[in-house]
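Pilot study result, target chain (221 residues):
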Amino acid sequence: MIKLRNIAKYYSAGIVKTYVLRGIDLEVEAGDFITLMGPSGAGKTTLLNIIGMLDSPSEGEYYFLDQRVHKLNDKKRAALYQKYFGYVFQSFHLIDELTVYENLETPLLYKKIKGGERKSMVCDILDRFQIVGKKDLFPHQLSGGQQQLVGVARAIIAKPRLILADEPTGNLHSAQGEEIMELFRKLNHQGTTIIQATHSEKNASFGKRIIKLLDGWIEKT
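Predicted structure:
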């Protein structure tokens, strides 16, 4: 599904390059459940953003379903993302001007799902996450935990083939966090590929494979 070859990400200041990632080789098969672990600043979020086509590598090759992502323009990358990906952001990334209902509906609009089906899918996910009473509220009216739940619901509503999750339970209390991880496990058993970044050993235990990052490198095991 995914092949990364010698991926590097750096920022230049004059002749000085500051590396965030370097020498990343990674293969992800369909149906994998992979956990990226490492201390803050290890490069986990940057790697997720490159896989999610929200950032571009400075060097290296990225193949997704045999397409050369590193050669695609922004429009084609965005189309791939909208078709196949769901993303749970650490900082939520909800659209401030939209209600909870409208935020959840947005991925379905991108997929051109018809109105009646959209309404049914949004109502189902509101009920599943027990946030029906929040549907007309705006993000700033929600707590951090509630925004996190909406972010997870938005990521899975369109049934993506691949879910990327950056500290997906970081703002949830333990019971909610366990429910989300059990949901991820169920989706994975149904065939959804999942890549999560987390500091949590407990969250990591839900996956099938752990990849440890340190100072932008994958640690050899």
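One observation from the pilot: The helical segments are 44-51, 74-84, 100-110, 115-128, 144-156, 174-189, 201-204. A full batch analysis is planned for the follow-on phase.
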